[in-house]
Amino acid sequence: MGELIAEVLRWFADGTRWSGPEGVVQRLFEHLQYSLLSTVVAVLIALPIGLLIGHTGKGAFFAINLASFGRALPTVGVVILVFLVSGLNLWPVYVALVVLAIPVIVTNTYAGMAAVDHDVRDAARGTGLNGWQVLFQIELPLAVPLIMNGVRLAVVQVVATATIAAYISFGGFGRYVFDGFAQNDLAQVFGGAVLIAVLAIALDLALSGLQRALTPRGLALQRRRSNR
Amino acid sequence: MRWSWISDHAGELAMTTLEHSAIAAVAVLCGLVLALPLGVLAVRFPLLKGAVLGISGVLFTIPSLALFILLLPFTGLSYETAVLGLTVYTLVVLVRNTVEGLASVPPNVREAARAMGYGGTRTLLTVELPLALPVIMAGVRVATVMTISLVSVAGFIGHGALGQLFIDGFQRDFAVPVIAGVVITLMLALVADLLLVVTQHALTPWTRRGR
Description:
The complex is a heterodimer.
Chain A: H1 2-13, H2 24-56, H3 60-72, H4 75-86, H5 91-114, H6 118-126, H7 131-161, H8 174-182, H9 186-214, H10 217-227
Chain B: H1 4-8, H2 10-44, H3 46-61, H4 64-75, H5 79-103, H6 107-115, H7 120-150, H8 163-172, H9 175-203
Helix pairs in contact in B: 2-3, 2-5, 2-7, 3-5, 4-5, 5-7, 6-7, 7-9, 8-9
């Protein structure tokens, strides 16, 4: 074990590892490209669905159980299936990652909307706001903390799963995992795993900062008071 | 598409499905055996709580494939590697839900048990764990469904059960086994989830009283 760690450190210390078309920096950009683009597309699809179900209350069963379906769907199978249909391009990666991210965002968005206090919603109606205004000025801001929880969960899963891009010969940190496995080079696999984990944690922290910034002040104050 | 492939290989598919269920079941059971004591310890010793939840959270960010490969020097290209790797992933969910479940037991219930002369262990086994059961079972359901899907990743180290169909289909440029693998995995997850709902229903009769 100690030997492996020393080897991993040597792997990271190698200056040529970091630059060039196969360097860590290039792999980082590729990994970020797959992960972020997929997450953004997933949010664009999942958020309206979650908001609609939460606002109308129709389809709650669907929204609650979608996350379970998402967990059950084997991503490796989805990637290979789309690959066999579309051929050698990035579609399999993007489709699989978007499909992976959508359910958890829909379920959390719905949960956030469902958790909005009925009295608050009624009060908003009573002051004369119409449906859209209630949605965008009252429900959405109040649901932001839980929606962002969903996005964070999705990002962590997407970053870890984007490893699969390397299986169908694309880049990202997954290259180190698959190449290391093929070359029986555990230090390389370990290095790749560390890079992926660090990227996932960094993005999660960045999003938790965004989550704090987007949370309405009243909600943050209320939470602080109840924690005391 | 040669759909007849499915009927030609029905026997093999059934065996593979059984193998898949066995791997997932053993992994979740091992996870539960580890997670329950860890969760109890984490609730008893708040210092441990941060460490246990933190470590299990970090483990979750490691790609499952990398974890399987990194276990190879210890357990080789074996069935144990697949189960061990999957067990690690179930811990994340199971430990967190055990901690949350135990924390959700109202303090006055605990005090009442103490007042009736229950010792620490008896309170834990007969009062706290049963009351935490719904939250723990929710974790078991999530972990089970997740594990059933993750078994296929162990296909890269040769023990993916239904996941082997994906790699097979990929190598032969043949989509039918891949579709079969995805569909059977989804159905297996659904059946397992339903079984767990029924189990929970049977284990927690008091949650239905007075409704």
